[in-house]
Amino acid sequence: IVEHQRQHGLRFGESAVALGLANDSDIVFALSQQFHYPYTPDERRATNAELVLASQPFGKQAEAFRAIRSQLMMKAFNPHEPKRALAIVSADSGDGKTFFTANLGVALAQLGGRTLVVDADMRTPRLHELFGIPNVSGLSGILSGRQEDNVIYQAPDIPSLYVMPVGVTPPNPLELLERPAFRLLMGELLRKFDHVIVDSPAQVHGSDA
Prior knowledge:
elongated
């Protein structure tokens, strides 16, 4: 490989692919290990292709999320300011909140800090689908006062990233989020995690995240 690299002026990985000793997926995986970026294995990528920072860590969308992360680290997550959760909101369902929340969570986790993404979209929860985790228990149970175990899951293949799903879909989602328990829960989570990102329902008000 090194000899071919010198003769043709290519990168090591490009030479390995040209010689048939590796494929593009092998090269991306090697780069992800070298630069400490989580990378979703081929056998799992079909189930979470929307996680572009894990499935395509060097693509244009991934770079855009890293640029957004840099802005947030300077402004919203200033270490000299009190810690606060970041709520991702939009006017309507289908605007891409879950896609944005999930990938921003991956981007923050890539920095090494403990990052939690919370699915508070109790009408149309999808974070559990993107990350391939159970949705038996979660935020709705906590806010309803039920004693539940396993409400926070480690995101598969992505170190430092954790997910709290909705759990059972409640009939009164906005009322649950407006209870004092939600504010108290956010305060507790901020003590345990470096970053907390909340996928909020469309047109949510008064969450104080």
